[in-house]
Amino acid sequence: ELRKREGTSGIEEKALRKAIAREGS
How many domains, in total, are found in the chain? Predict the structure, then answer.
């Protein structure tokens, strides 16, 4: 799982940040 997360960590983090920013706004 760690290896899989490492590959999508950047994309997932970007999506999560976008969702958080939308909720925060």
Answer: 1
